[in-house]
Design a protein that fits this description.
Strand 2 and strand 3 form a beta hairpin. The chain has two domains: 212 residues, DHBP synthase, CATH 3.90.870.10; 94 residues, Rossmann fold (3-Layer(aba) Sandwich), CATH 3.40.50. The protein is globular. The chain contains ten helices and 17 strands. The strands form four sheets. A nine-stranded mixed β-sheet has the order 2-3-7-4-6-5-9-10-11, sandwiched between helices. It has a four-stranded parallel β-sheet with strand order 12-17-14-16, with helices on one face. It is of the alpha/beta class and 333 residues long. The structure holds threonylcarbamoyladenylate (TXA) and magnesium ion. The site of threonylcarbamoyladenylate (TXA) has 26 residues, from strand 5, strand 6 and strand 10.
Protein backbone atom coordinates (compact mmCIF):
# COMPACT_ATOMS: atom_id res chain seq x y z
CA UNK A 1 0.00 0.00 0.00
CA UNK A 2 1.24 3.45 -0.86
CA UNK A 3 0.83 6.09 1.81
CA UNK A 4 0.30 9.67 0.65
CA UNK A 5 1.11 12.14 3.41
CA UNK A 6 1.73 15.83 3.89
CA UNK A 7 5.43 16.37 4.62
CA UNK A 8 5.13 17.40 8.26
CA UNK A 9 8.16 16.70 10.40
CA UNK A 10 7.30 13.12 11.48
CA UNK A 11 6.55 12.15 7.91
CA UNK A 12 9.84 13.60 6.68
CA UNK A 13 11.67 11.59 9.34
CA UNK A 14 9.81 8.48 8.18
CA UNK A 15 10.74 9.24 4.55
CA UNK A 16 14.41 9.66 5.45
CA UNK A 17 14.36 6.42 7.44
CA UNK A 18 12.90 4.59 4.43
CA UNK A 19 15.57 6.03 2.12
CA UNK A 20 18.35 5.09 4.55
CA UNK A 21 16.90 1.57 4.69
CA UNK A 22 17.26 1.31 0.88
CA UNK A 23 13.63 2.01 -0.05
CA UNK A 24 12.20 4.43 -2.61
CA UNK A 25 10.12 7.49 -1.71
CA UNK A 26 8.32 9.88 -4.07
CA UNK A 27 8.89 13.55 -3.31
CA UNK A 28 8.01 16.92 -4.83
CA UNK A 29 10.47 19.17 -6.63
CA UNK A 30 9.81 22.44 -8.44
CA UNK A 31 9.92 20.62 -11.81
CA UNK A 32 8.11 17.27 -11.42
CA UNK A 33 7.71 14.70 -8.66
CA UNK A 34 10.75 12.48 -8.32
CA UNK A 35 11.01 8.83 -7.32
CA UNK A 36 13.98 9.01 -4.99
CA UNK A 37 16.47 6.56 -3.55
CA UNK A 38 19.92 6.79 -1.96
CA UNK A 39 22.14 7.52 -5.00
CA UNK A 40 25.04 5.72 -3.33
CA UNK A 41 23.13 2.44 -2.83
CA UNK A 42 22.88 0.38 -6.03
CA UNK A 43 20.31 -2.01 -4.64
CA UNK A 44 18.05 0.89 -3.71
CA UNK A 45 18.55 2.53 -7.12
CA UNK A 46 17.66 -0.78 -8.81
CA UNK A 47 14.24 -0.47 -7.18
CA UNK A 48 13.69 2.84 -9.01
CA UNK A 49 14.25 1.16 -12.39
CA UNK A 50 12.03 -1.77 -11.40
CA UNK A 51 9.18 0.33 -9.99
CA UNK A 52 9.14 2.56 -13.09
CA UNK A 53 9.44 -0.39 -15.47
CA UNK A 54 12.20 1.59 -17.17
CA UNK A 55 13.28 -0.41 -20.24
CA UNK A 56 16.94 0.49 -20.03
CA UNK A 57 19.41 1.80 -17.49
CA UNK A 58 19.20 5.43 -18.44
CA UNK A 59 21.50 7.39 -16.13
CA UNK A 60 19.73 9.20 -13.29
CA UNK A 61 20.08 12.69 -11.88
CA UNK A 62 21.49 12.92 -8.35
CA UNK A 63 19.84 15.61 -6.25
CA UNK A 64 21.95 17.39 -3.66
CA UNK A 65 21.16 19.64 -0.72
CA UNK A 66 23.64 22.28 -1.87
CA UNK A 67 26.63 22.84 -4.14
CA UNK A 68 29.06 21.94 -1.36
CA UNK A 69 27.59 18.44 -1.05
CA UNK A 70 27.70 17.94 -4.81
CA UNK A 71 31.30 19.18 -5.11
CA UNK A 72 32.20 15.81 -3.59
CA UNK A 73 30.47 13.98 -6.43
CA UNK A 74 31.44 15.87 -9.58
CA UNK A 75 34.41 17.91 -10.77
CA UNK A 76 33.27 21.52 -11.06
CA UNK A 77 35.19 23.78 -13.46
CA UNK A 78 34.76 27.56 -13.44
CA UNK A 79 31.78 27.32 -15.80
CA UNK A 80 30.01 24.82 -13.54
CA UNK A 81 30.68 27.01 -10.50
CA UNK A 82 29.31 30.09 -12.23
CA UNK A 83 26.15 28.25 -13.26
CA UNK A 84 25.66 26.65 -9.85
CA UNK A 85 26.02 30.07 -8.18
CA UNK A 86 23.41 31.49 -10.48
CA UNK A 87 20.87 28.73 -11.00
CA UNK A 88 20.98 26.47 -7.93
CA UNK A 89 18.70 25.71 -6.30
CA UNK A 90 16.73 25.48 -9.54
CA UNK A 91 15.76 23.49 -12.64
CA UNK A 92 19.28 23.07 -14.06
CA UNK A 93 21.00 19.68 -14.20
CA UNK A 94 24.72 19.69 -14.96
CA UNK A 95 26.58 16.72 -16.43
CA UNK A 96 30.10 16.81 -14.99
CA UNK A 97 33.05 14.42 -14.84
CA UNK A 98 32.69 12.11 -11.87
CA UNK A 99 34.79 13.04 -8.86
CA UNK A 100 37.44 10.36 -8.14
CA UNK A 101 35.97 9.92 -4.66
CA UNK A 102 32.32 10.16 -5.75
CA UNK A 103 29.92 8.08 -3.70
CA UNK A 104 27.20 8.03 -6.37
CA UNK A 105 27.04 4.41 -7.50
CA UNK A 106 27.58 2.88 -10.94
CA UNK A 107 23.91 2.11 -11.48
CA UNK A 108 22.86 5.73 -10.88
CA UNK A 109 25.43 6.76 -13.51
CA UNK A 110 24.51 3.83 -15.81
CA UNK A 111 28.19 2.98 -15.76
CA UNK A 112 29.29 6.35 -17.16
CA UNK A 113 32.29 8.31 -15.89
CA UNK A 114 30.06 11.36 -15.59
CA UNK A 115 27.46 12.46 -13.05
CA UNK A 116 24.22 14.42 -13.51
CA UNK A 117 23.75 16.83 -10.60
CA UNK A 118 21.18 19.31 -9.48
CA UNK A 119 19.94 21.11 -6.37
CA UNK A 120 16.12 21.28 -6.51
CA UNK A 121 14.32 24.47 -5.54
CA UNK A 122 11.75 22.95 -3.23
CA UNK A 123 11.72 23.10 0.57
CA UNK A 124 10.44 19.52 1.00
CA UNK A 125 13.02 18.05 -1.37
CA UNK A 126 15.83 19.98 0.31
CA UNK A 127 14.72 18.99 3.81
CA UNK A 128 14.52 15.34 2.75
CA UNK A 129 17.98 15.34 1.16
CA UNK A 130 19.47 17.11 4.17
CA UNK A 131 17.94 14.61 6.59
CA UNK A 132 19.14 11.64 4.52
CA UNK A 133 22.69 13.02 4.33
CA UNK A 134 23.24 11.54 0.85
CA UNK A 135 22.37 12.68 -2.67
CA UNK A 136 19.08 11.23 -3.93
CA UNK A 137 18.85 9.63 -7.36
CA UNK A 138 15.46 10.55 -8.77
CA UNK A 139 13.84 10.29 -12.18
CA UNK A 140 10.26 11.43 -12.60
CA UNK A 141 7.90 9.43 -10.37
CA UNK A 142 5.82 7.80 -13.07
CA UNK A 143 5.59 4.53 -14.92
CA UNK A 144 8.11 4.59 -17.79
CA UNK A 145 6.67 5.90 -21.03
CA UNK A 146 3.85 7.88 -19.38
CA UNK A 147 3.58 11.58 -18.63
CA UNK A 148 5.68 13.07 -15.85
CA UNK A 149 3.73 13.68 -12.63
CA UNK A 150 3.23 17.18 -11.31
CA UNK A 151 0.93 16.32 -8.41
CA UNK A 152 0.96 13.60 -5.75
CA UNK A 153 -2.18 12.14 -7.29
CA UNK A 154 -0.45 11.66 -10.64
CA UNK A 155 2.25 9.73 -8.81
CA UNK A 156 -0.26 7.57 -6.96
CA UNK A 157 -2.21 6.83 -10.15
CA UNK A 158 0.90 6.00 -12.15
CA UNK A 159 2.74 3.89 -9.56
CA UNK A 160 -0.18 2.31 -7.70
CA UNK A 161 0.72 -1.19 -8.87
CA UNK A 162 4.48 -0.71 -8.95
CA UNK A 163 6.70 -3.67 -8.10
CA UNK A 164 8.43 -3.17 -5.75
CA UNK A 165 5.72 -0.94 -4.25
CA UNK A 166 6.35 2.71 -3.45
CA UNK A 167 5.76 2.91 0.32
CA UNK A 168 5.42 6.68 0.65
CA UNK A 169 4.55 9.73 -1.46
CA UNK A 170 5.33 13.10 0.10
CA UNK A 171 2.45 15.34 -0.95
CA UNK A 172 3.78 18.83 -1.60
CA UNK A 173 1.11 20.21 -3.88
CA UNK A 174 1.44 21.00 -7.57
CA UNK A 175 4.93 21.53 -9.05
CA UNK A 176 5.71 25.16 -9.84
CA UNK A 177 7.70 24.49 -13.04
CA UNK A 178 5.99 21.31 -14.22
CA UNK A 179 8.61 20.45 -16.84
CA UNK A 180 11.75 18.44 -16.23
CA UNK A 181 14.97 20.37 -15.63
CA UNK A 182 17.27 21.67 -18.35
CA UNK A 183 20.13 19.15 -18.79
CA UNK A 184 23.44 20.73 -19.75
CA UNK A 185 26.62 18.85 -20.63
CA UNK A 186 29.77 20.48 -19.26
CA UNK A 187 32.13 17.56 -19.81
CA UNK A 188 33.42 18.80 -23.18
CA UNK A 189 34.92 21.97 -24.53
CA UNK A 190 31.55 23.17 -25.77
CA UNK A 191 28.55 23.68 -23.56
CA UNK A 192 25.61 21.71 -24.89
CA UNK A 193 21.99 21.49 -23.77
CA UNK A 194 20.82 17.86 -23.97
CA UNK A 195 17.30 18.45 -22.68
CA UNK A 196 15.38 21.69 -22.89
CA UNK A 197 13.78 22.97 -19.71
CA UNK A 198 12.80 26.15 -17.95
CA UNK A 199 16.34 27.56 -18.21
CA UNK A 200 17.23 28.39 -21.82
CA UNK A 201 20.52 28.65 -23.73
CA UNK A 202 20.20 32.46 -23.60
CA UNK A 203 19.74 32.35 -19.81
CA UNK A 204 22.89 30.26 -19.46
CA UNK A 205 24.94 32.32 -21.93
CA UNK A 206 24.53 35.37 -19.71
CA UNK A 207 26.83 33.77 -17.16
CA UNK A 208 29.41 32.22 -19.50
CA UNK A 209 31.91 33.70 -21.97
CA UNK A 210 30.83 31.32 -24.70
CA UNK A 211 27.80 30.29 -26.70
CA UNK A 212 25.57 27.40 -25.74
CA UNK A 213 24.00 25.08 -28.30
CA UNK A 214 21.11 22.63 -28.24
CA UNK A 215 21.61 18.96 -29.09
CA UNK A 216 18.24 17.47 -28.32
CA UNK A 217 18.10 13.80 -29.19
CA UNK A 218 15.38 11.23 -28.72
CA UNK A 219 16.28 9.64 -25.38
CA UNK A 220 16.36 6.07 -26.67
CA UNK A 221 18.04 6.64 -30.05
CA UNK A 222 20.99 9.01 -29.99
CA UNK A 223 21.90 10.37 -33.43
CA UNK A 224 25.61 10.09 -32.79
CA UNK A 225 27.52 7.99 -30.29
CA UNK A 226 28.91 11.14 -28.71
CA UNK A 227 25.45 12.17 -27.60
CA UNK A 228 23.03 11.56 -24.83
CA UNK A 229 23.06 7.85 -24.12
CA UNK A 230 26.70 7.01 -23.98
CA UNK A 231 26.17 3.77 -22.13
CA UNK A 232 29.07 1.79 -20.83
CA UNK A 233 30.51 -0.53 -23.46
CA UNK A 234 33.19 -3.02 -22.41
CA UNK A 235 36.55 -3.07 -24.17
CA UNK A 236 36.39 -6.81 -24.86
CA UNK A 237 33.63 -8.71 -26.71
CA UNK A 238 30.71 -10.24 -24.90
CA UNK A 239 29.07 -13.61 -25.48
CA UNK A 240 25.47 -13.74 -24.29
CA UNK A 241 23.33 -16.72 -23.20
CA UNK A 242 26.47 -18.68 -22.41
CA UNK A 243 25.92 -22.25 -21.22
CA UNK A 244 29.61 -22.86 -20.66
CA UNK A 245 32.79 -20.79 -20.40
CA UNK A 246 36.15 -21.01 -22.21
CA UNK A 247 39.28 -21.14 -20.09
CA UNK A 248 40.37 -17.72 -21.34
CA UNK A 249 36.96 -16.05 -20.91
CA UNK A 250 35.62 -14.17 -17.92
CA UNK A 251 32.25 -15.33 -16.63
CA UNK A 252 29.41 -13.01 -15.66
CA UNK A 253 27.17 -15.47 -13.86
CA UNK A 254 23.60 -15.34 -12.64
CA UNK A 255 22.16 -17.88 -10.22
CA UNK A 256 23.64 -21.23 -9.21
CA UNK A 257 26.72 -22.45 -11.10
CA UNK A 258 25.87 -26.12 -10.76
CA UNK A 259 25.67 -26.82 -14.47
CA UNK A 260 28.33 -24.41 -15.74
CA UNK A 261 31.36 -26.19 -17.15
CA UNK A 262 34.64 -25.00 -18.63
CA UNK A 263 34.98 -25.91 -22.30
CA UNK A 264 37.34 -28.85 -22.63
CA UNK A 265 36.83 -29.90 -19.02
CA UNK A 266 36.51 -28.52 -15.51
CA UNK A 267 33.91 -26.68 -13.51
CA UNK A 268 33.21 -22.96 -13.73
CA UNK A 269 33.17 -22.55 -9.95
CA UNK A 270 36.89 -23.50 -9.97
CA UNK A 271 37.84 -20.49 -12.13
CA UNK A 272 40.17 -18.05 -10.34
CA UNK A 273 38.13 -15.47 -8.37
CA UNK A 274 39.11 -12.52 -10.58
CA UNK A 275 37.70 -14.35 -13.63
CA UNK A 276 34.16 -14.71 -12.35
CA UNK A 277 31.45 -12.48 -10.88
CA UNK A 278 28.02 -13.73 -9.91
CA UNK A 279 25.35 -11.03 -10.27
CA UNK A 280 23.17 -12.90 -7.78
CA UNK A 281 23.81 -16.42 -6.55
CA UNK A 282 20.22 -16.63 -5.36
CA UNK A 283 18.84 -15.47 -8.73
CA UNK A 284 17.50 -12.16 -7.36
CA UNK A 285 17.08 -9.74 -10.29
CA UNK A 286 17.15 -6.62 -8.08
CA UNK A 287 20.46 -7.71 -6.63
CA UNK A 288 21.71 -8.46 -10.17
CA UNK A 289 20.75 -4.99 -11.39
CA UNK A 290 22.50 -3.42 -8.44
CA UNK A 291 25.72 -5.33 -9.18
CA UNK A 292 25.53 -5.13 -12.95
CA UNK A 293 27.73 -2.18 -13.90
CA UNK A 294 30.35 -2.78 -11.24
CA UNK A 295 30.75 -6.46 -12.09
CA UNK A 296 30.83 -5.90 -15.84
CA UNK A 297 33.59 -3.39 -15.24
CA UNK A 298 35.53 -5.81 -12.99
CA UNK A 299 35.58 -8.42 -15.76
CA UNK A 300 36.43 -6.00 -18.57
CA UNK A 301 40.15 -6.85 -18.60
CA UNK A 302 42.32 -7.31 -21.71
CA UNK A 303 43.69 -10.60 -20.34
CA UNK A 304 40.30 -12.21 -21.15
CA UNK A 305 39.20 -12.99 -24.72
CA UNK A 306 35.51 -12.32 -23.96
CA UNK A 307 32.97 -11.93 -21.21
CA UNK A 308 30.62 -14.91 -21.26
CA UNK A 309 27.26 -13.98 -19.76
CA UNK A 310 24.80 -16.53 -18.44
CA UNK A 311 21.11 -16.28 -19.33
CA UNK A 312 19.19 -13.71 -17.29
CA UNK A 313 15.39 -13.99 -17.35
CA UNK A 314 13.76 -11.08 -19.21
CA UNK A 315 11.12 -10.38 -16.59
CA UNK A 316 10.70 -7.27 -14.45
CA UNK A 317 13.99 -5.45 -14.11
CA UNK A 318 15.56 -8.37 -16.02
CA UNK A 319 14.27 -6.65 -19.17
CA UNK A 320 16.44 -3.64 -18.36
CA UNK A 321 19.43 -5.86 -17.68
CA UNK A 322 18.99 -7.69 -20.99
CA UNK A 323 18.50 -4.47 -22.91
CA UNK A 324 21.74 -3.15 -21.42
CA UNK A 325 23.54 -6.42 -22.15
CA UNK A 326 22.54 -6.46 -25.80
CA UNK A 327 23.66 -2.84 -26.21
CA UNK A 328 26.98 -3.63 -24.58
CA UNK A 329 27.40 -6.74 -26.75
CA UNK A 330 26.63 -4.80 -29.96
CA UNK A 331 29.02 -2.00 -29.05
CA UNK A 332 31.85 -4.51 -28.85
CA UNK A 333 31.12 -6.15 -32.24
O1 LIG B 1 13.39 17.84 -13.37
C1 LIG B 1 14.03 16.80 -13.36
O2 LIG B 1 15.17 16.72 -13.83
C2 LIG B 1 13.38 15.57 -12.70
C3 LIG B 1 13.23 15.86 -11.23
C4 LIG B 1 12.73 14.68 -10.44
O3 LIG B 1 14.45 16.33 -10.70
N1 LIG B 1 14.16 14.40 -12.96
C5 LIG B 1 14.22 13.82 -14.20
O4 LIG B 1 15.02 12.70 -14.26
O5 LIG B 1 13.65 14.24 -15.17
P1 LIG B 1 15.03 11.69 -15.50
O6 LIG B 1 15.75 10.47 -15.02
O7 LIG B 1 13.66 11.48 -16.05
O8 LIG B 1 15.91 12.40 -16.58
C6 LIG B 1 17.31 12.41 -16.49
C7 LIG B 1 17.88 12.83 -17.83
C8 LIG B 1 17.78 11.72 -18.85
O9 LIG B 1 17.49 12.27 -20.10
C9 LIG B 1 19.17 11.13 -18.82
O10 LIG B 1 19.50 10.47 -20.02
C10 LIG B 1 20.02 12.36 -18.56
O11 LIG B 1 19.26 13.15 -17.68
N2 LIG B 1 21.30 12.03 -17.89
C11 LIG B 1 21.47 11.64 -16.61
N3 LIG B 1 22.77 11.40 -16.35
C12 LIG B 1 23.44 11.65 -17.49
C13 LIG B 1 24.81 11.58 -17.87
N4 LIG B 1 25.75 11.23 -17.00
N5 LIG B 1 25.13 11.91 -19.15
C14 LIG B 1 24.17 12.28 -20.04
N6 LIG B 1 22.85 12.37 -19.73
C15 LIG B 1 22.49 12.05 -18.49
MG1 LIG C 1 11.15 11.05 -16.97
Amino acid sequence: MTKIAAPINDVLQEAAALIKAGEVVAFPTETVYGLGADATNAKAVAKIFAAKGRPSFNPLISHGFDQEQLEEEGIFDSRARALADQFWPGPLTMILPKHPRARICDLTRAGLETVALRVPDHAVALKLIETCGVPLAAPSANRSGTLSPTSPHHVAASLADAVPPVPLILAGGACAVGLESTVIDLTGREVVILRAGAISAEDIEQYLDESVTYELTPTEAPRSPGQLLRHYAPGIPMRLQAVDVAADEALLAFGPLKFMGIKGGGHARDLPPHQIRNLSEGGDLLEAAANFFAYLRDLDQPEFSKIAVMDIPAIGIGIAINERLSRAAKAGE
